[in-house]
Amino acid sequence: MPDIDQKNFRTALSRFATGVTVVTTRDSNGTPVGVTANSFNSVSLNPPMVLWSLAKTSKSMAAFSEADRFAIHILGSHQRDLSDRFASRGADKFAGMEVPTDSLPLLDEFAARFICRTAHQYDGGDHKIFVGEVLEIDVRDADPLLFLAGKYGEARRAPPENYEGIDPDKARVGAHSITHMIATLYAQITDRIQTRLAPISLNHKQLVILIAVGHQEQPKWSMIKQKVESAGMVNAEAEKDQLVGNNLLKEKDDALTITDDGRARYLEALSAIKALEEEYCAGLTRNELAEVQNALQSIIDRTGDGDMSIID
Ligand SMILES: Cc1cc2nc3c(=O)[nH]c(=O)nc-3n(C[C@H](O)[C@H](O)[C@H](O)COP(=O)(O)O)c2cc1C
To answer: Which numbered atom of ligand 1 lies nearest the CA of 90?
Structure first.
């Protein structure tokens, strides 16, 4: 026997990031059986084959050893609970779930699903290796759940390998510098927002002022003015006067309140902008959106003086 320290071996294996699957079948009585397994891997493309391994101590061993079919569900990032449920030893893992009574117990939700014929079974020490010939596949538009170092994780694309900021000698790199991208994005989005706001007789600056007033109890114009002007808005006073003139804001001394008309217009504007945002974010995954939000927030935090937000 090789002298490998068990703990070290487990730690070494845990450095290998995997997805998470739930493998299901029926036992000889027709009872649905399933286990969480991250030992899944691809084997052959032609014929299509995959494998996974099951501990010999598993209560599901007899069922999988006797079954001629099994289904492997690659879980989505939102399915941690399901993974925990199928990792609980011997419990009624299908409780409350509707599974077809006549065929394999298939789960409704997954990132990908393989229906397999049991092609081979091999001894693998304290595990048994099952090789399945893939009969059917089903793929969904879902981010996969990951498992790394004993914990769940979510997939995120690695940053570009050699981002070095602006390099004047390489025009293309300069064109893709973050500064250039943010400036382009700002110009493009402001333009589109103007187009969406025009039918409801508001402009971008007026919306910013409405948002600032709508989020606070009778804020002082002098404070809002200072914030919006330090964020680059010119002619803030004239824009505010127009909002007051159109009865969207009320001004008393230095205090502003939003009128019922103002609030209605503001909600209309927000839903127009939300629709616009959905259009230009279409195609980004939930994870990508979270990454974009986090990255932009860090840049905003680092470029502001900490008190630039118009919303307190
Ligand atoms: C993320 C994760 C991956 C797992 N992978 C495997 C695996 O590949 N093979 C295995 O035998 N057990 C694996 N397990 C443990 C089984 O799911 C667990 O032992 C389960 O209780 C077995 O159920 P049973 O005894 O009812 O058959 C994993 C557990 C988790 C949380």
So the answer is: 26
Say which range, 59-73, 161-175, 200-214, has the weakest mean pLDDT.
161-175
For residue range 96-136, list pLDDT tens digits in order.
998 887 789 999 999 999 999 999 999 999 999 999 999 99
Q: For residue 212, which of 196, 229, 235 has the smallest C-alpha distance?
A: 229
**At which residue do the structure tokens 């050699």 appear?**
162
Q: How many Å from the N-terminal Cα to the C-terminal Cα in the chain? A: 65
For the chain, which domains are there?
6-154 (2.30.110.10), 172-303 (1.10.10.10)
Cα–Cα distance for residue pair 206/10, rounded to 1 Å: 60
Distance of CA 151 to the CA centre of its chain: 17
pLDDT-based confidence at residue 173 (cuts at 50, 70, 90): very low
Predicted pLDDT of residue 100: 80
DSSP state, residue 220: B
Q: Whose CA is nearest to atom 16 of ligand 1?
A: 87
Q: From the CA of 60, how far away is ligand 1's center (Å)? A: 10
Ligand 1 interacting residues, C-beta cut-off 6 A: 20, 35-39, 52-55, 58-60, 83, 87-90, 147
The DSSP secondary-structure symbol of 119 reads E
Mutual orientation of helices 221-230 and 236-245 as an angle, nearest 10°?
130
pLDDT band at 170 (very low <50, low <70, confident <90, very high): low
- In terms of DSSP bridges, do strands 249-252 and 151-154 run parallel, antiparallel, or are they unpaired? unpaired
User: Residue 252: left if φ>0, alpha if ψ -120 to 50, beta else—which one?
Assistant: beta
E strand or H helix at 121, and its extent? strand 112-124
| Separation between Cα atoms, residue 175 and residue 278, nearest integer Å | 26
Question: What angle is formed at CA 142 by the lines to CA 136 and CA 148, rounded to 5 degrees?
Answer: 100
